Amino acid sequence: SLVDITADPTRGAGPGGLGAHADADASVEWGEEVPLDGSASAGDITTFEWFEDYGQTGQKLLGTGVTLRVTLPLGTHHITLRVTDLAGASATDDLTITVVDTTGPRITVNILPNPLWPANNKMVDVIAHVRATDACGGSVDVKLISIEGGGFAPRAGNNSQSNVSGAEIGTADFTFQLRAVRASSKQGAYYQVTYTATDTAGNQSSATRIVRVPHDHRDIPKSGPGPVPIP
């Protein structure tokens, strides 16, 4: 993401060979510092000034110096280097910095109660506590994507559809019911509850919480598993 301002007598040239040239535009990730470098400019330069929206009503001085490091908000930024020499002559050159967001939100899921006990085949009210934040500070859209189960006792009616109630898949649903299934295996039963978080740039992250149904009280874990990130 290095931006070089280099001498070029055919672009940005001023009196006495004074000149500056924006070597290339750049695209950087939000939060990254953008290093601006005017050290290759030509002439007896005494002042290096960096502007955004130079010559416009909203013109803003970003800083001064041969080099400068800046952090810019999301979007497209029009940057201008103005150099001034000993005689007071000046020359400018422009470049464009595009700040993008390609990182998904951070999301964690916790479900209570967990584990489901006792394993008496009754429906249990559960609440999903989902926290989703975006580094850019924008809004985040959270949705329940799926509830899948495993380790269920193989008997009629004991399937994932009948073991889940009130779950509105594809919506921001955080309350539903899960059946405390009595599994035939000593491994017990479990559910995988997955949520996604999507930021305003369209970046998406997912997280899954495992909800367990122990086979018996001796198998109740002292602490449940943490959120499992899904690529």
What would the keywords be for this entry?
mainly beta; 5-stranded mixed β-sheet; 16 strands; 0% helix; 49% strand; rod-shaped; disordered N terminus
Q: How is the main sheet built?
A: 5 strands, mixed
Q: pLDDT under 50 segments (min length 5)?
A: 1-13, 224-231
Please report the total strand number as a whole number: 16
Helical fraction equals under 10%
Shape, per Cα inertia axes = rod-shaped
- Helix and strand content put the structural class at mainly beta
Instruction: Indicate the radius of gyration in whole angstroms.
Output: 29 Å
Q: Total helix count?
A: 0
Describe what you observe in this structure:
The chain is mostly beta strands and 231 residues long. Helix content is 0%, strand content 49%. The protein has strands at residues 3-6, 26-29, 34-40, 45-52, 60-64, 67-70, 75-85, 90-100, 106-112, 123-133, 140-150, 164-165, 175-179, 189-199, 204-213, 228-230. Strand 4 (45-52) and strand 5 (60-64) form a beta hairpin. It is built from no helices and 16 strands. Mean pLDDT is 83; it is low at 1-13 and 224-231. The strands form four sheets. A five-stranded mixed beta sheet has the order 2-8-7-4-5, with no helix packed on it.
